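User: Before I run my own analysis I want an independent prediction to cross-check against. Here's the chain; please return only the C-alpha cells and, at the end, one sentence I can use as a sanity check.
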Amino acid sequence: MFPGFGTLVNAGLVLFGATLGLRGSRLLPSGLHQPIMHAIGLFTLLLGLRLVYENKPELLKVFFILVVGGAVGGLLRLEERASELYSGESDFAKGFVSASLLFTVGPMTLMGCILEGTKGDSSLLISKAFMDGFSSVVLASTLGKGVLFSSIYVLFFQGSITLVAYFFGDLIERQSMNNALFLGGGLMVLTALRIWGLLEHVKTLNLMPALIIALVL
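Assistant: C-alpha cells:
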C-alpha cells in the first residue's frame, strides 16, 4: 500500500458517515439534539483532559508554538473563512472544528500516520477510519454541514504527518509528539466548552496550525 492510503480511507469514511448523518438528521427528534450535543461535549472534554494529563510537554516551546500557530491562523482568518463557506449555517465553524479535532487529535492519529509513513502499515489508520466514520454520522446529525468538510482537514492533517514520517521518520522526536498531544488536548477542552455554548468568542480554528507546527519543531 502507498503512503497515505489509510488517510484516504479515513477521510472517505468521514465524508460518507457525515453524509448519512445529514440525511438522517430529520429522523432525530429535535428534543434529542441538545442532550446529544452535551454528551459529545462531555466526551470531548474527557478525552482532551486525558491527553493533557498523559503527556509531558516542553511548556516554553508549547507557548511559542501556540503564539506562532495562533498568529498564522489569525492572518489566514481560518475560522472566519470556514464560517463564510456556508453563511446559512451559523454553527458551521463549530461543527468543522469539533469534528476536525475529534478525528485528528489522539494517539491513534499520530501513531497510525507514523506507522504508515515509516513501515507502510495502514492497519491502525484503517481501524481508526471505521471509528471516525461511525462517529461522523452522529456528529453530522447534530452539528451540521461543518462535519462534512472536516474530511478535508483529516486528509490534509493526517496526510501531512504521513508524508513527514515517510521522508523524515527518523527525525521525528518523541517529545514533539508529546507537545502536539498536549496541545491537542487543550484545544479539545476549548472545543468542548464551545459545544456547551461557553467561550464562543475564542476562535479555536485559528489555533489549529499549532498542531502541525508542534510536530515539526
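Sanity check: The chain has ten helices and no strands.
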